[in-house]
Amino acid sequence: MTTSTVFFRLYLPDEAATMALGVHLARSMTELKIFPALLLRGELGAGKTTLVRGLVGALPGGDQAEVSSPSFNYMNCYPTQPETSHFDFYRLQHCGIDDELLEAMHDAGKLVLVEWAEFCPETHSLQERLEFQFSPVSSGRQLVISGQGNNALRLLEKIQKDMALTRQAY
Global pTM? Predict the structure, then answer.
């Protein structure tokens, strides 16, 4: 079993590149039939919801989803295949996460997307996951993607290979 964490960096010059990365993630996940949790970190306006919008829209059934940040209700569900649970923990940073949200976050039958993952205690971390750290740079965003767990690492490896083959730097 792989326990090490692997990571790589991307430059995202604009919103279109962030959406394109989301689409690429959805296609790669669907092709491999691997759907690890995605934990998204970064400041307000960093591109977390934009990435989710691209990903969810490209999943089967995603054309029926209206993706928005679940800031006020903490979780949105989308009618995709697999069904997607989209969490936002920004407003929970000082409160903690209740049992109902934790149960939903660990539902193995759903794709789990977590914005503001830094406010989720490590004790509730998901074993199979890709972590995305968005950071602003002079024009655009730098994104560091890391993987944890065998399936997540396989997906990350595929994404890296695809990008090397197409020389695409989102």
Answer: 0.88
